[in-house]
UniProtKB/TrEMBL annotation:
Source taxonomy: Bacteria, Pseudomonadati, Pseudomonadota, Gammaproteobacteria, Lysobacterales
Keywords: Isomerase, Magnesium, Metal-binding, Phosphoprotein
Protein known as: phosphomannomutase
Gene3D superfamilies given in the database record: Alpha-D-Glucose-1,6-Bisphosphate, subunit A, domain 3 (3.40.120.10), Alpha-D-phosphohexomutase, C-terminal domain (3.30.310.50)
Cofactor: Mg(2+)
Enzyme class: isomerase
Organism encoding this protein: Rhodanobacter ginsenosidimutans
Amino acid sequence: MKMAKGMSFDWRGLLPLAAGTLLLLLGLFCGWQAWLIADEGQAAARVHVAQDQAVKALAQELATQRATVTAAVATLDPAVAMQDPAQATATLRQRLPQAQALELYSGTLNEVLHANYREFGYAKAAQLMSAQTADGTPPAQSVSHGGSDRRLSLVVPLGAPDRAQGWAWVELPFAPLRQRLDAIDPAGGRLDLRQGDERGDMRLLSHGAASAESETGGKPVPGSAFSVGAALPRAFIVLPHSVLLAALLALFGLGAGAFLLWRRTRSVVEISSEPEEPVVPTEIPQIVREPAKVAAPPTAPARSGGDARAAVDPSIFRAYDIRGIVGKTLSRDVAYLLGQAIGSLMRERDLHEIVVGRDGRLSGPELAGALSDGFRAAGIDVIDIGAVPTPVVYFATFHFETGCGVAVTGSHNPPDYNGFKIMVGGETLAEDAIQDLYQRIASGALVADGQGAYRHVDVAPDYIDRITSDVQAERSLKVVVDCGNGIPGALAPQVLEEIGCEVIPLYCEVDGTFPNHHPDPSEPSNLQDLIVSVQKSGADLGVAFDGDGDRLGVVTRTGEIIYPDRLLMLFARDVLSRQPGATIIYDVKCTGHLKGQILDAGGSPLMWRTGHSLIKAKIRETDAELAGEMSGHFFFKERWFGFDDGIYAAARLLEIIAGDALGRSPDEIFATLPKGVSTPELKVEMVEGRNYRFMMNFRAKAAFEGATLITIDGVRADWPDGWGLVRASNTTPVLVLRFDADNAAALQRIQDVFREQMLAVDPSLQLPF
């Protein structure tokens, strides 16, 4: 329809139509959101059913493979076979044509114990040695021969398992396991076959949606070192996780939209039924003379908040640091914006210089470079100290008196992760301070008016000199140092040698792909090569570090893993011998025996929340001389600077052992520390955010008769003979549990109580105990 020249069109008449349409769309969207929220738990349950099916199918396949090999081996006379291993091997090859490698070893495995493991293979040696302690059926495992050539390895006894005269080591094709996994419907999620590490860093196979949200834990496959992890479908949910709220919003949108459209239709019908009258433009001259009003363009900020939000995923801003996947949630742009945000915070505090270091990950140079560019754009001077362990970054902030530093590190996460640990004004940022950085980026409140200076400095010699000038071993100890190909390999062997120890390096070549095992000493599976190497070399002790060197793991010659809470007892005795009455901090996951040990040594024990940033803040608040976490972080303020440093902690440990007045071995010294029956950290996977909601309900409803409750971080229930803990992880969407007791019966009783209380809050939980 044409309007008369000079006539104006009243667009306000379309407003009810537009508003009604938008409200209808909003209602439909909220209805869809309500369906997604309602289906969230069922979607997770469907994936977990698929996970159970995969575990069962893989276990059946492994049992079939083992039965085939066992049947072939059973045709051999063990005594004859071990007299002529070459002929026996040839016979087995005929009966197992599918075998890709086949070797026979003596019943004592002496040839394995004294092998050159670099050539023989640490994983292979560990599997064979475990045959003597695994009822003759060591777990099946996967062996990589480079690229996509992955095989299944089995060890089968010749003769009765308890008195085997020999052992057959067989490599078989891995394809049947892949076929079994691929035959399972992942129900919209993803199934991951993993080996050895529940964090998923040794992921062997994946089947399903690549975009699914990975969960931390996995269900073990019986008879193997494998587990099956479940990754849940990623539902696009933007509303709060409440079906009622989403449904109410849907009803409102649909109802209001329908009402507005009905009113619009009614008014149109009423207008169209009236007779048309000619419209006389009596005020046309006035309308023509008035110029149209044009809104002034908005003033654009230096960097728009919309651009920043598009570039930065808020999920990477964690409780203790910033962490994400390179190429997905982390990029050069994100690092640059983060540099600007930290630089803007520093400018507000009148701080002008910062230290930047990075670990050995392949993405480190690019991210550290972009981060430095962001600092300089904010007018901050950068001191680049290159590839160093995270504790060296902390050390450099004291050495150069900047009080500010950023370690670009993925810590113990898989190779495709990276992140940032941040110190500003002597304080390691955590929680609200981390979130404040995101808000600065999202709102565009970034300083970009400067050009900071840049210099590169090698601070490693100063770090080594500072440690070795204070810490020395009174007698030489032989130590195996396992760095898991992380950045500690660049410094740890030299530090321990210079304090007077004989060092046997293991995986100390820095390689950001972590080709041997993941650098995470809190996982017992990652310490198996170290245990084998210590036993083979006759070393006094084995020490291991995580990927950035701020955590420590320890094993003895007998193969015992000394958990960090017991190490903290030893450190506390030493520190309190010089600093009586000092405060010693430990986190909620540590053993209940620790408090008594600190009191007996004349100290003041203080339990606190888990998290390296939170512990450091508590040290500053209480002026504590020592702190430690179950994860392996140790914080020495006595004779050091109060930050977590795995390399320095290893040096202090060796100093204590070497200086023992009675000349006892490490095993004898550790035997003086109380040791109960405990579990490692157990994890219950959940969808993002659900772990926090569960803990809110659990804290309100749980009741533990006869126990002392501690709720500073989750819920910990202490009884006279043991304790249990459940807390929400601040880094991944899981519940973390640990149990510790004086004996197995008490441990079982405490687990039963926690199981009953947790299932009362959420009956759908799949508990790992």
